[in-house]
Amino acid sequence: MGNCFKTPSTDDITLLHDNDSQDGTQQAAPVPVGPPPPYQERAPVYYPSPNVSRPANMLTEDEQIKIAQRLGLISHLPTGVYDGCSKRGKECAICMCEFVMGEALRYLPCMHVYHKDCIDDWLMRSFTCPSCCEPVDAALLTTYETN
Amino acid sequence: MVLPGKVGDSLVDTQDMHKRLQKELTALMKDPPTGVKVDAESIYKNLSEWIVDLDGAPGTLYAGESLQLLFKFGSRYPFDSPQVMFVGPNIPVHPHVYSNGHICLSILTEDWSPALSVQAVCLSIVSMLSSCTEKKRPPDNAFYIKTCSKNPKKTRWWYHDDNV
């Protein structure tokens, strides 16, 4: 079950570097004594619908399917890196912080742009644009039709 | 860092929430909308609970009334909506405001968006009051205040009237 919940990270090179360096430090650290922490406390939390949060190992089958589909849809939305060009806004409406050069962004079909981490967190709860409330799946279909 | 039974409420979440609330507070202090006042000193002591003073808009049924809103923010703010209710001696008499201060307003639950803010919520509430044409309590007030939870977000609101 665990594997199908991982976000695809094939084209994200920064993540790979992170993993490498973490592996390196873990090897250098002394071997921890005692039993490993219980799995349940480490399970990632998902939001099958707004205001409902559950660790991954307590999701119903329908919720698992919904989450897997949602992850797939989110991965189809274009991403980019802030290059200092503020044509599509220079602030993330979710964290209210200005974009900094090099930060990962995600573009929604309605042309609103957010930090990738901020918007992905929201899209898992509700597949709508926080700024214009447009449902992202409907807007995705329109872009497919016009292209 | 992770509280038992509350998997995912990590320290990182709380830091993000504080950072955003700090930004909202700074913006509200610098450029407050008319009729909205926050007491920054009390908020700095506890950033997760805000008291906001509202003035009823001139030319409306609430003109001249002083009102107080209580905001409570959870560690998942702005992804989760804040708890918002009227407190203090003057709970406005309005068809969407219960006498215990709870407010029936869809942006506070199902229509919440993380792009909304304390300022946006305050302005929506002022606008909700301003469009009121007759001061009265919701028809189910007596039953609701006897049976509801202390947390208005626990109520399964049924948004039935968009005109008031």
CATH homologous superfamily caption of chain A:
Zinc/RING finger domain, C3HC4 (zinc finger)
Count of discrete structural domains of chain A? 1
Largest interface, per-chain counts? A-B, 22 and 21 residues
Strand content of chain B: 5-15%
Look at the structure and give the CATH class of chain A.
Alpha Beta
How do the strands of the widest beta sheet of chain A line up side by side? 3-4-5
Give the overall shape of chain B. Answer: globular
Distance between the termini of chain B: 44 Å
- Biggest sheet record of chain A: 3 strands, antiparallel
| Radius of gyration of chain B using CA atoms only | 16 Å
Low-confidence stretches of chain A: 1-10, 18-26
Structural class determined from secondary elements of chain A: alpha+beta
Number of beta-strand segments of chain A:
5
Mean pLDDT metric of chain B: 88
Tell the overall outline of chain A. Answer: globular
**Helix and strand pattern of chain A:** HHEEHEEEHH
Question: Can you count the helices of chain A?
Answer: 5
* Architecture (CATH level 2) name of chain B: Roll
Terminal Cα separation of chain A, in Å? 36 Å
Tell me about the biggest sheet of chain B?
4 strands, antiparallel
Brief overview:
The complex is a heterodimer of chains A (147) and B (164). With 147 residues, chain A is of the alpha+beta class.
Question: In words, what does this structure look like?
Answer:
The complex is a heterodimer of chains A (147) and B (164). With 147 residues, chain A is an alpha+beta fold. Chain A has one domain (40-146): 2-Layer Sandwich (Herpes Virus-1), CATH 3.30.40. Chain A is built from 5 helices and 5 strands; from the N terminus they run H-H-E-E-H-E-E-E-H-H. Chain A has helices at 13-28, 39-42, 61-75, 116-123, 136-146; strands at residues 45-49, 52-55, 79-81, 104-107, 113-115. In chain A, the strands form 2 sheets. Chain A has a 3-stranded antiparallel beta sheet, with helices on one face. Chain A has a two-stranded antiparallel ribbon with strand order 1-2. Chain A is globular, with a radius of gyration of 18 Å. Residues 1-10 and 18-26 of chain A have low confidence and may be disordered. By secondary structure, chain B is an alpha+beta fold. Chain B has a single domain (11-141), classed as Ubiquitin Conjugating Enzyme (Roll). In chain B, strands 1-2-3-4 form a 4-stranded antiparallel beta sheet. Chain B is globular, with a radius of gyration of 16 Å. Chain B starts with 10 loop residues before the first helix and ends in a 17-residue tail after the last helix. The interface between A and B is medium-sized, with 22 and 21 residues.
